[in-house]
Amino acid sequence: MLRPAVAPKSLERHFIALAAGVLLLVSVLAGILLYQNWQSYGAASEARQAFASVRATIRVMERASAERGPMNAALGSALPVQPHVAASLTAARAKTDGLIDALLALHPGEDGKAKRGEIQRIRQTLDQARQDVDRLIATPRDQLSGQMLWDTVSAMVRVIPQWQASLAANAGLVMRSEANAPSLLTLALLASELREQAGLLGSTYTPALSRHRKLTAEEQFRIERVLGRIDELHALIRMRMATHPDVRASEVYARMERRYFGDGLAYLERVREQASRQWDAAPVSTGDLAAAYVPMMGAITEFRDVLLEEMERHIDAHRMSAARLLAVTLAATALLVAALAVALVQFRKRVIQPFALATRIIGSIASGSTPPKIPPGKYHGEVEEVFNALRVLKENSAARKRLEAERDRLIADLAHTAETDYLTGLLNRRAFEKRFEAARLHWDESQPMLAFILFDIDHFKTINDTHGHASGDLALKAVAELCRATWRQSDVVARVGGEEFAVLCRTRGAQQAMEMAERMRAAIGASTVTSESGVTFGLTASFGVACISWSHAESASSLFRAADELLYLAKLNGRNQVQQRTLG
Q1: 105 in Cβ contact with 116 (< 8 Å)
Q2: What is the pLDDT of residues 447-469, one digit of tens each?
Q3: Selection from 172, 134, 141, 174 nearest residue 156 by Cα
């Protein structure tokens, strides 16, 4: 038994095991650190994506709520609705739809399929509510009741909680991933809810203002209920802002206190007082209410957007910090592993390599493989003497391998010559019979039919007698070239006699075999051969085609005899034709 290139218990084997162990330990520790940093970066990236979805959903909620302003103005207008009022409503809806499309774009691919379906369902609810609004806008004003108006407004209002539920999962992900998220995002969500309640408060006046009548007791109750929710949200925001250090947020919060909780609510209170009495000569319309009240609600939106921007800065800073830490860890790990690898390589090169190289050279020469190159003059002393001796041994081994390669080439050439017809380059009869036996033994039902085609050149003796044997050889070569051009690469083609050729092929059916033989017969009939004397003559050939199906595979040995009989029949019937029969 030959000794392996790295012998058991050798110095190099022990060194490789030790080096692998050290590198594995360092790699595992570095991998754990990299994995933790990668997880942190991935969580920050997921939080960034989730926050983008939350922010986009909040914007959709705002625009869907803002649609109620021009909607109330249209409901309060006399028919026909003034063009600028209708255009304002159309523009508001277009803005909402654009933001919904942007929200859908944040959830691409298969992973976002469920979320896109949820958004589309909410969108359908919104579209249905819009259709109800449009029908009510087109209804004659004397046919509208306060309940009809309020039901329509309520349908638009009910869409908002669906958007709030939609953002809950992503909001939870952001809060779990970011340290500052609970306080900032909660404040932003409270401000978003405040914006919705502020819009709802304005919408509660729509039935009374559109009909120019006093507020009913039920409508007064609705106003009080919404005001109670606004006071509750105001208290929650004020409590959280008391501990919030951000100066800009505090400034915007103070502006919201002054602009909305001061001016806005005071304006609505005046409208309420007026709507609680009999209307005077110049009542407030729904359009007047929207024009005066909606800009005051802008302070809430500004406060919310400042909180979202601050939240976005925190998330981006956290993500960048995680990315930097990951990059630094990756670079440090790569340097550590590279330094350790270089140290181990140098130690191996200076201490282990000479003995390991000598062992590999001896093992390669003994096994007959190509030995490694021996660098000249690299080593000194006894080691150099060992390599000098190995050079002599390597040269002797190379000379022996060259002789063996030449022997193998000659054997291969002899084998090819033994199977090839010297004149045409096709297989000879002996090789063809071997291929036939192999095809018969390995034939299976996936190959439905086996065809044996035997053909020879008509009047070949006359060609030899008329034009000479050299011209007959040219005719055989021409037919051989036609065989190579006509038959498939998978077909077995051979010259099995003087002017006789045989083909073995697998076909889909007997008709295909017949067509293939006819194609070869036509190619031979269309060819011409020019003799050495310059005389051009044509060729024809007769064919016998015997086919057998898989169900009669045991009779495949009779193909030779059947094809020969069919060829003889083609000769008797006048030559230059194909005779075919299916056995079994």
Answers
A1: no
A2: 778 899 999 999 999 999 899 89
A3: 134
First-last CA distance in the chain: 57
Is residue 514 helix, strand or coil?
A: helix
**Residue 60 Cα distances to 166, 260, 290, 352, 395, angstroms:** 11, 21, 19, 70, 82
What pLDDT band is residue 156 in, cutting at 50, 70 and 90?
A: confident
For residues 384 and 374, give the distance between their C-alpha atoms in angstroms, rounded to a whole number.
10
Residue 572: the pLDDT is 94
pTM of the model: 0.51
Radius of gyration, alpha carbons of the chain: 47
> Which residue carries 């625009």 as its tokens?
63
Q: Residue 381: which region, alpha, beta or left (left: phi > 0; alpha: psi -120 to 50)? A: left
Q: How far apart are CA 426 and CA 316, in angstroms?
A: 75
* Pair 270, 296: CB distance under 8 Å: no
C-alpha 15/C-alpha 354 separation (Å) is 14
3-state SS, residue 496: coil
Q: Report residue 12: phi and psi, to 5°.
A: -65, -35
The token pair at 41 is: 């970066």
Instruction: Give the per-residue pLDDT at 457.
Output: 94
The closest of 63, 58, 81 to 133, measured between CA atoms, is 81
Condensed to tens digits (0 to 9), the pLDDT of residues 102-145 reads: 888 888 888 888 888 888 898 898 889 888 888 888 888 778 77
β-sheet bridge partners, residue 581: 546
**Residue 278 backbone zone (phi > 0: left; psi -120 to 50: alpha; other: beta):** beta
Pairing verdict, β 578-583 and 541-549: parallel
Q: What count of residues does the chain have?
A: 584
Contacts of 49 (CB under 8 A, 6+ apart): 106
Strand, coil or helix: 167: helix
Closest by alpha carbon to 248, among 195, 303, 327?
A: 303
Distance, CA of 581 to CA of 172 (rounded, Å): 80
Percent of the chain with pLDDT over 90: 20
What's the gap between Cα 345 and its chain centre? 40
Q: Strand 500-507 and strand 492-495: pairing?
A: antiparallel
DSSP string, 44-86: HHHHHHHHHHHHHHHHHHHHHHHTHHHHHHHHHSPSSPPHHHH
d(CA 484, CA 465): 27
3-state SS assignment for residue 579: strand
Distance CA(211)–CA(142), nearest Å, equals: 9
